């Protein structure tokens, strides 16, 4: 297992007029659906994929409802989830209205399962998706997958 990354020349957002530098960008290998997770979990347990999918869907619904109620959801070794808000400032508390809230972000604080894994991550350099797409277009292929 390894984190796939490509190297891209980008501007520094804190210094837009500065020289472009090369930065790593994470590259997604595959999108794992809830159904695929359910099948993997079912394979490692005595439950059917349908049973696992049902539980995961209910988990998603309940987590979303608790977050919408302003709760923090502590999922043990997985981590904690909670909403954070960004707002425009007001000169006085009385002048502050809910319309000053400009953005809501979902904050995820990784639990020990992720923190332990981060210590052993490996990295693998891959071609940028743009380069792969251009190569596919040039050869009239619908998809080119770089070799591992």
Description:
The protein is of the alpha+beta class and 148 residues long. It has helices at 34-43, 49-68, 112-118, 129-138; strands at residues 3-10, 21-26, 73-74, 79-87, 101-110, 123-125. It has a three-stranded mixed beta sheet, with no helix packed on it. The protein has a three-stranded antiparallel beta sheet with strand order 3-4-5. A hairpin with a 4-residue loop joins strand 3 and strand 4 (79-87). The longest helix has 20 residues, at 49-68.
Rough outline: flat
Number of helical stretches of at least 4 residues? 4
Number of DSSP strand runs: 6
Give the low-confidence spans. none
Can you give the mean pLDDT? 90
In short:
The protein is an alpha+beta fold. The protein has four helices and six strands; from the N terminus they run ββααβββαβα.
Question: What secondary-structure arrangement, pairings included, does this model have?
Answer:
Elements: E1 3-10, E2 21-26, H1 34-43, H2 49-68, E3 73-74, E4 79-87, E5 101-110, H3 112-118, E6 123-125, H4 129-138
Parallel strand pairs: 1-6
Antiparallel strand pairs: 1-2, 3-4, 4-5
């Amino acid at each position: 297992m390894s984190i796939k990354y490509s190297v891209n020349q980008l501007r520094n957002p804190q210094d837009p007029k500065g020289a472009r530098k090369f930065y790593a960008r994470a590259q997604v290998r595959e999108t794992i659906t809830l159904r695929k997770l359910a099948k993997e979990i079912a394979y490692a347990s005595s439950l059917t994929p349908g049973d696992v999918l049902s539980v995961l869907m209910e988990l998603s619904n309940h987590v979303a409802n608790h977050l919408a109620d302003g709760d923090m959801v502590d999922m043990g070794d997985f981590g904690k989830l909670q909403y954070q808000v960004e707002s425009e400032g007001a000169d006085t508390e009385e002048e502050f209205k809910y319309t000053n809230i400009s953005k809501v972000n979902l904050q995820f604080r990784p639990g020990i399962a992720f923190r332990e894994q981060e210590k052993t991550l490996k990295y693998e350099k891959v071609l940028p998706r743009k380069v792969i797409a251009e190569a596919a277009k040039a050869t009239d292929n619908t998809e080119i997958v770089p070799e591992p």
